[in-house]
Amino acid sequence: VTFKQMLKEEIGEILRISPEKIEDTRSLYDMGLDSLMGVELGLAIESRFGVKLPVLALSESPTIAKLAEKLISILKASGTAEESASAASKNDLAAQVQQAASQHALDVDEGIIEEVTKTIQANESQKTGRMIH
């Protein structure tokens, strides 16, 4: 699966069209992408690729081809930042689990927090990460 194909899958789910019908050089706006869908696309890209898409990237890169180039350059520039982001995400999730436990007056040890965190991460990797289905 190519990088462009992964983007087509994400955009296809958002636009509710088959990824095969998405042309690499056609404007996403011409295909029906609006600003709310753009936000969803940004979140999907962040979830799938581990990088935050700059807000203006969709206005600068309205085609699959240009968007793929932009994301590849961001990924190359981040280098090992991808691994750091994954570790930070895991730490954030563990903190959220700890906070939820304390809100419910539960005294939970680190082993259980780690186990719950791993379970949540495993379940999240199976989801599409869509806000709207």
Descriptive tags:
133 residues, single chain, 6 helices, 65% helix, mainly alpha
Give the overall pLDDT as a whole number.
76
List the uncertain runs.
none
Please estimate the helix content.
55-70%
Biggest sheet statistics: none
Order of helices and strands: HHHHHH
Quickly give the structural class.
mainly alpha
Residue fraction in strands: under 5%
Describe the structure.
The chain has 133 residues and is mainly alpha-helical. 65% of the residues lie in helices and 0% in strands. It has six helices and no strands. It has helices spanning 3-15, 35-49, 57-60, 64-78, 81-103, 110-126. α1 (3-15) packs across α2 (35-49), α1 (3-15) crosses α4 (64-78) and α5 (81-103) packs across α6 (110-126). The longest helix is centred in the last third of the chain and has 23 residues, at 81-103.
Structure summary:
The chain is mostly helical. Helices cover 65% and strands 0% of the residues.
Topology:
Elements: H1 3-15, H2 35-49, H3 57-60, H4 64-78, H5 81-103, H6 110-126
